[in-house]
Amino acid sequence: MPTTEMKSTRRREATRERLLDAARDVLAESGIQGATVEEICERAGFTRGAFYSNFESKDDLVLDLFRREKDLMLGRVQAALDIELLSPAETDAETIVRVLDQFLGSQPTDRTWFLVHQEFVIHGVRQREIADVYQELWTQTRAEFATIITGAVEALQRKLALPVEQMTLILMGVFDEAMRNAFLSTSADAFDATELREMLPALLMAVSEPL
């Protein structure tokens, strides 16, 4: 039977998650600069007291949201790769598209997701007093993504023709560019991955070779 302490911890975690969920929506609508603690609390249905019992400041919340979004995204990438990667009935390019579709099917790559991630970048550049913190988080994100790419390339029995760190930057840039193009060219909320399905396999085939 759960103890009082366990119930309290679960309530606190649930409150924290609701605040982060509310912040995600508010930041997409108003931007990090425009969003207020009051607006986030109202969206989550909590008081300022509940906010400040979980976060020291709005910046503290934003950094926690960054970490949560990063962990969720990388977890979904890894989950997509954990399916049976090799299939004798597929070319390597077809396998890459299948994995991409598996990831996109589990990851909410919608307009809100895109806007929030762009806000992270803008905020880190604009707020010089916390720029080092953001730089460290982006470096960590790239390193974790590089580890996933290394495993995926090895599973496909291929090898990269350039350092995995460079490949990571290229892939992240391609993904961001595809999302930016998709949302600039349409008012739809959902991400149309047509461009990404064409570019990603061609790119990976061009910068790798069979073992």
UniProtKB/TrEMBL annotation:
<dbReference type="InterPro" id="IPR009057">
    <property type="entry name" value="Homeodomain-like_sf"/>
</dbReference>
<dbReference type="InterPro" id="IPR050109">
    <property type="entry name" value="HTH-type_TetR-like_transc_reg"/>
</dbReference>
<dbReference type="InterPro" id="IPR001647">
    <property type="entry name" value="HTH_TetR"/>
</dbReference>
<protein>
    <submittedName>
        <fullName>AcrR family transcriptional regulator</fullName>
    </submittedName>
</protein>
<dbReference type="InterPro" id="IPR036271">
    <property type="entry name" value="Tet_transcr_reg_TetR-rel_C_sf"/>
</dbReference>
<keyword id="KW-0238">DNA-binding</keyword>
<dbReference type="Pfam" id="PF00440">
    <property type="entry name" value="TetR_N"/>
</dbReference>
<feature type="DNA-binding region" description="H-T-H motif">
    <location>
        <begin position="36"/>
        <end position="55"/>
    </location>
</feature>
<feature type="domain" description="HTH tetR-type">
    <location>
        <begin position="13"/>
        <end position="73"/>
    </location>
</feature>
